[in-house]
Design goal:
The structure holds 2 protein chains of 2 kinds. By secondary structure, chain A is an alpha+beta fold. Helices cover 16% and strands 37% of the residues of chain A. In chain A, strands 1, 2, 3, 4, 5, 6, 7, 8, 9 and 10 form a 10-stranded mixed beta sheet that branches. By secondary structure, chain B is an all-alpha fold. Helix content of chain B is 64%, strand content 0%. The relative contact order of chain B is 0.12. The chains are: A alpha+beta, B mainly alpha.
């Protein structure tokens, strides 16, 4: 039972009463299992440029609320200023988007369920036939030798 | 902590078991439903595996993880609100006041407590929810969860508990509550 050392007994009692009155949901066992399984996903991607989700900073241009923008972290090199803009279109049944500056190559989306890959065309556009829910990340490898991976991000 | 980062399954299990109850509580404190809480906690651990080597002090890991849960919960909430602008939004969900049967069956005291909590403005409501978590969060973890300085937590706690008491029984307090957090 919760007991906070540096609160008065009556404060602790109040919190305990409150916890009884409010339904604090207990942690499901499945959470432990899925968290333990994450260890297998450790990959050494240190050599790849990291893309951070920058939807707020980049200003989401599309009217689609489920558009996400990733940009490379600032730093020297030709991978500076790469942006991936994508839409997780559940209705489309696909993840569509565009990489700029453009170059052809390959994009992979990784989720708990595995990895799906798709080509990137000359104009940096891609169409990955998969629906993404929960946590995901992208890995991009382009013919101009740019290679990047995004942080784990949540699809809404 | 470093053993876990190096891939030791037992060290990893220890870490997960140690922090998950708290992270679950923090996710709940931020009004996430169970599925969203599950996802956000996964993200926190994935980020740890990505960048945990930047956490120099193992004692700071709890606060580090709580900050991620806070940020991801807020991001998720923002995106949800963008997608369904006509909804009231998660931050207006009330704690089980929506079930009239529960209100009938529970004793008056419980109903009064829930209503008092619901009437508390933010950030007090969020803070009180965090104080209900078992095992209790440290000052640093609370501070990371509500994005306030650690030094202010003690005083903020007292103020919020005071407000809660006033909501429960306004007749007991004569003074005018004009404090601004």
């Amino acid at each position: 039972m919760t007991f906070i050392d540096d609160l008065s007994p009556s404060d602790n009692e109040l919190l305990r009463e409150l916890a009884d009155a409010v339904d604090v949901p207990s942690m499901p066992d499945s959470l432990r299992e899925s968290c333990l399984g994450l260890l297998a996903w450790r990959t050494v991607d240190a050599d790849l440029a990291q893309l951070l989700e920058t939807s707020a900073l980049a200003g989401v241009r599309s009217s689609e609320a489920d558009t996400i923008v990733f940009s490379t972290t600032p730093g020297p090199g030709y991978q500076d200023g790469t942006t991936i803009e994508l839409t997780l279109g559940e209705r489309l049944g696909a993840v569509v988007g565009r990489i700029s500056p453009p170059a052809p190559g390959d994009i992979k989306v990784q989720t708990r369920n595995g990895i799906v890959s798709a080509p990137v065309d000359d104009e940096g556009r891609f169409h990955i036939p998969t629906i993404v829910r929960g946590a995901f990340r992208l890995r991009v490898e382009l013919t101009d030798r740019r290679a990047m991976v995004t942080s784990w991000t949540l699809a809404a | 902590m470093n053993a876990a980062l190096d891939g030791d399954p037992r060290a990893w299990a220890d870490l997960v078991d140690r922090f998950n109850p708290r992270l679950w509580g923090v996710a709940w404190g931020h009004r996430l439903d169970q599925a969203a809480a599950h996802d956000v906690i996964q993200i926190a651990w994935m980020r740890f595996l990505e960048r945990g080597h930047t956490v120099r002090d193992p004692d700071a890991l709890g606060a580090w993880l709580c900050a991620i849960v806070r940020n991801e919960a807020r991001r998720l909430l923002e995106r949800q609100q963008r997608m369904t602008p006509t909804d009231t939004g998660w931050d207006q969900l009330e704690d089980d006041d929506t079930d009239p049967m529960a209100a009938l069956l529970d004793d008056e005291r419980k109903v009064a407590l829930r209503q008092a909590l619901n009437r508390l403005g933010e950030p007090c409501r969020e803070l009180i929810r965090l104080l209900m978590i078992d095992p209790p969060l440290s000052y640093a973890e609370i501070a990371a969860s509500i994005d306030r300085p650690v030094g202010s937590i003690g005083a903020t706690r007292q103020r919020c508990l005071g407000r809660l008491r006033r909501q429960i029984d306004p007749s007991m307090y004569q003074d005018d509550d004009s404090e601004v957090l």
